[in-house]
Amino acid sequence: MCVSVQELDFDPGAEMAALSAGQEEVGAVASFLGLVRGYEGLDEMELEHYPGMTEKALAAIVAEAEARWTLRRVRVIHRVGKLLPGERIVFVGVASSHRGDAFEACAFIMDYLKTQAPFWKKERTAEGTRWVDARESDAVAAARWGSSVA
Amino acid sequence: MSVKILYFASLRETLCCSEETLSDLPPGVETVGALREWLCARGERWSALRTGQSIRAAVNQELAQASQLIADGDEIAFFPPVTGG
Asked: To the nearest whole number, what is the mean pLDDT of chain A?
């Protein structure tokens, strides 16, 4: 399964290795690892999602990437539930024959994940809880790839 | 027409509702946008769904526009802009 939505942590090194294991035609593996960014006062981040739609949305984003670039293998992992600052939250790994496809597809998947996949972050600080606002810069980043996969 | 409606994140908290099944939708409520308007008329806290509020919708787990038709048995979801990654 190339898409996972889970509470458990994951091993980025093992995921990277698995992307090329047994595939001699893979010449490039690009990856993105997202962490819970800490700041003074942040105690915890909670991630809510829409079970069912989340997996479908991620699979659709991967399928779109596979249609646009020549890819050998793709892996997307997104964690949900309660996470502490510094913890891993998302992994995108792309294996292809050449680096151009791998770099671009990896950035594309992250940009679309940010704007299309139904996840929501809630921060907890000493003052209470607060839902994180969507950022215009994420919409701009997704828009550079052209038409939506929605 | 009977539909299941889900609400997520801040919208779920504002509405104090995560899921409901509506079996009494009037005949005129045939699109996502019309359903949203009909829900708004329920009272004050439901104005969180009014036009102009930044709310996304999905029908059967795929993102949907206000003009999308809804049908008996659909699963419809409303939620704020996503913030994953």
From this structure: 95
Per run of 10 residues, the mean pLDDT along chain A (length 150 residues) is 94 97 96 95 97 97 97 98 98 98 98 97 96 93 78
The CATH number assigned to the domain with range B3-79 reads: 3.10.20.30
A124 — contact with chain B (CB < 8 Å)? Answer: no
CA distance B20 to A101: 44
What ipTM does this complex have?
A: 0.94
**Burial class of residue A50, CB neighbours in 10 A (0-12, 13-18, 19+):** buried
Where are the domains positioned within chain B? 3-79
Q: Out of B9, B62, B85, name the one closest to residue A131 (CB).
A: B9
How confident is the model over B17-35, as a mean pLDDT? 94
What pLDDT does A1 receive?
61
CB-based contacts of A39-43 (< 8 A; 24+ apart in sequence): A39/A85, A41/A125, A41/A126, A41/A127, A42/A85, A42/A123, A42/A124, A42/A125, A43/A124, A43/A125, A43/A126
